[in-house]
Design goal:
By secondary structure, this protein is an alpha+beta fold. The strands form 4 sheets. Strands 6, 7, 8, 15, 16, 17, 18, 19, 20 and 21 form a 10-stranded mixed β-sheet that branches. A 6-stranded mixed β-sheet has the order 10-3-2-14-23-22, sandwiched between helices. Strand 16 and strand 17 form a beta hairpin.
């Protein structure tokens, strides 16, 4: 079996699906190839959190601006693809609320102190399962369940071979494979960039409990409203790729989250995903060094926040448009 879409996206996580939907919205026929099953994007709380991301010590005004610009792409992106966008803000509980407010204000975010920390309307959220379904069903996007075994560059097109014998051809290919090993046939620098992505294991738990009015966060815990209750998470374990849940850790976090809510609840099975990160914590997005090859990889813990920005950068590269203001910061070969 062979097929020849305009663009092939390999990987159906948030970066792959956002890119596929963006391209389809611009009139391209897009095939997404993915083996199926849960991935790091589906095992996520869906936070669009530029403000609280900038409470970390490594945040800079430049990073804050990039995250905020990506967040600001979400209203139009959500309208275009029928995604529910919740702009209900965040409450943060932690030490020295006024100092935290001052830090956010210096980064360009609006926040005000509360008795237990701060509150801000700057951080939003999406419902992850519904969002992934909507993006996969965007007009012009076809999702195929298969595992890509090899890539090869031919004259003005890419050949994509699956391990079940199927083959596809397209002038443009987007690699959105998360922390998977480089696909055989990738050019050397693109393969090296993919191989250098560092895994971070994350675990969260769905809990049937009364949700707070908005996302509730502490320095080491979050509670996000979700269908049927809340999501409580999450761990961030550097270097781990195993997917076996840590039931003891999940139990501790659920207990801490319910205590913070002052409520009782019943926890479901914990979910585990492996997120990819680069040396500077920003994704790899845009054209690689082989014509027609583009990367959309490694958003670390901000995959949902950065999805529309990565999608726009990759789509602009495929269409030969002038790079936007954030394209250089996400250059996929900046570490090469």
């Amino acid at each position: 079996m062979t097929s020849s879409p305009d663009v092939i996206v390999i990987g159906a996580g948030v970066l792959g699906l956002c890119t596929a939907a963006e391209l389809a919205g611009r009139g391209h026929a897009v095939t997404v190839i993915d083996p199926g099953g849960a991935n790091a994007s589906s095992v996520a709380a869906g936070m669009l959190a530029p403000a609280l991301e900038c409470l970390s010590d490594e945040a800079t005004p430049e990073r804050a601006g990039l995250l905020k610009r990506s967040r600001d792409l979400w209203p139009e992106f959500a309208r275009t693809f029928g995604l529910a966008l919740h702009r209900d803000g965040v409450d943060w509980r932690g030490p020295d609320g006024p100092a935290a407010v001052a830090r956010l204000t210096a980064m360009g975010f609006a926040a005000r102190p509360t008795r237990t920390g701060l509150t801000s309307a700057e951080d939003w959220r999406v419902d992850v399962p519904a969002a992934m379904t909507a993006l996969a069903r965007a007009p012009g996007v076809a999702v195929i369940r298969s595992r890509v075994a090899r890539l090869s560059a031919e004259a003005r097109r890419w050949r994509v071979e699956a391990d079940d014998g199927r083959t596809w051809f397209a002038p443009s290919v987007v690699l959105a494979t998360g922390v998977a090993a480089p696909i055989p046939g990738l050019p050397a620098r693109a393969a090296a960039a993919a191989a250098a992505i560092e895994p971070f294991r994350g675990q969260l738990s769905p809990v049937a409990a009364p949700p707070p009015p908005r996302t509730l966060r502490t320095p080491d815990l979050y509670i996000v409203p979700a269908a049927g209750g809340v999501i409580i998470g999450a761990t961030m374990e550097r270097g781990r790729r195993d997917l076996d849940p840590d039931l003891e850790e999940a139990s501790r976090r659920v207990a801490a989250g319910l205590a913070l809510l002052g409520a009782a609840g019943e926890a479901g099975p914990p979910r585990v995903g492996i997120r990819g990160a680069t040396a500077d914590g920003l994704p790899l997005a845009g054209p690689a060094d082989e014509p027609g090859l583009h990367l959309a990889l490694a958003p670390f813990r901000n995959g949902w926040l950065l999805g529309p920005l990565v999608a726009a950068i990759v789509a602009d590269g495929i269409e030969g448009r002038a790079p936007g203001p954030d394209a250089a910061a996400l250059d996929p070969l900046r570490f090469a």
